[in-house]
Design goal:
Layout lengths: L5 H18 L13 E7 L3 H15 L2 E7 L1 H9 L6 E3 L3 H8 L10 E5 L2 E6 L11 H8 L4 E4 L5 H12 L3 H4 L3 E4 L2 H9 L5 E5 H6 L3 E6 L9 E6 L7 H9 L2 H9 L3 E2 L1
Length: 265
């Protein structure tokens, strides 16, 4: 995380505090007494599509999903610490590999389910409509403001963003302007609220928020493939997790993800 001084430090701290509030998973809604449930820990970028899938899954099976959304590695470490989760749905292979290396997922249930794209967003009200991948264009668009994205040290979207900007020889131009967040939806929020002129998020996040617009799309070859692996955890019991995994691989569920902008495997 970058260090700032003076006014910049105050701004960075304000961003970090808001991000931490946004990162904390919201409490799951209470379920009917005795109703079967499956607890899912999922990457924040999955929220819109997975919420829709949860509704369809309950209608089909009667099983309620209790979903906690946050950054993938933060969720993985919560599972490592004993948080009760039946299914882990990550936004990168590294977070899933972390749990696999500790035998905390059922390896035979692991599957790469989705893909995504990386984009630059600006507030809907901004005059900027198209951003070129040049140092001059980024410097002009940022001005004295900040660029938001996930923390590259722990948040998948930040890792992809750093890789892409380095590949395009833009990292040194943007680096000092970053305000890192603990999940991609927090980064999106700052742009939507016009507190940052630019943000690097997933295509699906940009499509979910009417207060932002896409001003640039990163070339697919500028960063590692964006992959969303899913698996049942080693603590999962009963057949609920297996039923959920099977449902999410079905055509009706895949259609819900495609509608939000994901690609399906």
């Amino acid at each position: 995380m970058l260090r700032f001084s003076g006014i910049a430090l105050a701004l960075a701290l304000a961003f970090a505090a808001s991000a931490l509030r946004a990162e904390a998973p919201a409490p799951a809604a209470p379920t009917q007494a005795g109703a079967p449930t499956v607890t899912v820990f999922a990457a924040a970028s999955l929220k819109n599509a997975l919420d829709a899938a949860a509704t369809a899954f309950k209608a089909k099976t009667g099983i309620e999903l209790k979903i906690s959304y946050a950054g993938s590695m933060a969720l993985a470490k919560q599972i490592e610490s004993g948080a009760p989760a039946d299914v882990f749905f990550a936004a990168d292979e590294a977070s899933m590999d972390y749990l696999a290396g500790k035998s905390l997922i059922k390896a035979d249930t692991r599957a790469d389910l989705l893909g995504n794209a990386l984009v630059v967003v600006a507030p809907r009200t901004a005059k900027l409509d198209k951003l070129a991948f040049t140092r001059e264009a980024f410097s002009a668009a940022i001005g004295a403001g900040k660029v938001t994205t996930g923390d590259p040290a722990s948040v998948p979207v930040g890792k992809y963003a750093k890789a892409a900007l380095e590949k395009l020889d833009l990292w040194s131009t943007v680096e000092l302007h970053f305000a890192f967040t603990d999940n991609v939806r927090a980064a999106l929020m700052f742009v939507a609220r016009e507190e940052a002129p630019l943000g690097v998020v997933y295509l699906t996040d940009a499509k979910s928020e009417p207060k932002v617009k896409i001003v640039a799309s990163f070339p697919a070859n500028s960063h590692p493939p964006i992959v969303y692996p899913i698996a049942a955890t080693s603590a999962a019991t009963g057949d609920g997790a297996g039923k959920l995994l099977a449902f999410l691989k079905s055509k009706p569920a895949k259609a819900l993800f495609v509608e939000q902008g994901f690609t399906v495997k």
